[in-house]
Amino acid sequence: MAPIEPSKSGFIGVFDSGIGGLSVLQALRAEMPQERFVYWADSDFAPYGERSEQFVIERSHFITQQLIAQGPMKALVVACNTATAVAIESLRATFPSLPFIGVEPALKPALAQTKTLRVGVMGTQGTLRSLRFEKLLQSVLNEASSQSCEFVLQSCKGLAIAIEQQTEKSLNDTQAIDALCAHYVASMGSFGLAPGQIDTLVLGCTHYVFVQDILRQLVGPQVNIISTGEAVAKQTKRLIVPLPPNAENADMSNNIQLWTNGSLQALQAAASRWLDLSSEHCLLVQTESSKVLN
Ligand code: DGL
User: Is 81 in the pocket of ligand 1 (CB under 6 A)?
Assistant: First the structure.
């Protein structure tokens, strides 16, 4: 594993079960171009959403320890709804001096925006079945104004891994993803602005941001599609001591390292496609199979 040079200011760690969290990294980078980022794609262990809670907790702790071992880390962004849902509380308890920023399905913003009072929520099984999500949903439903709002929850088995696997294919080869998206959108019901239709769709998994165009085709142009990358980036900025803008370092892309324990080619393709980063930013790291529970 390539060591990170220790720095006074430290880097911001980011992780996900795979490449989905790159959608959050895009927003982090846009918000804080001067910061250093190390991104861990745990692709060898994806999809988290179809694993046990214990498995995801174990992986999240392992990745956190690996990142801490690289030198001073300012904050760790859990760029994964599933890992946030099941692991962030134990991460905070175990590493109390490290600020953790999690990602949650944007139910509150959706509630503020819906006019038809029907909101679709796409997420992994792990997220939608978690206690944390249940509490979030309950707290939103308890808000006086939201009594009549209905959240249509759709667990999207297979979609995150299909997005992982698509990355190495050509941009047009989206057959498997098209079929899954069509199936899950149809399962949620009718989309549109008319009474009784779903007018707001929450992307409750960071992978789904990369198929937003396909979802947009399916739900139509008027439906609000909400993701959380920007809000997470703003929250991260509030929590850290920012580096001053560095005029000498004009190419800020030098500040980003992307690691994977899965397919290096897939990560390189994703980095180039979504972050405009060359393959030198991508590294293959060793998988700790001894840490796997199931
Ligand atoms: N991207 C992750 C999320 O936001 C996990 C997807 C998965 O590995 O199942 O939930």
Answer: yes
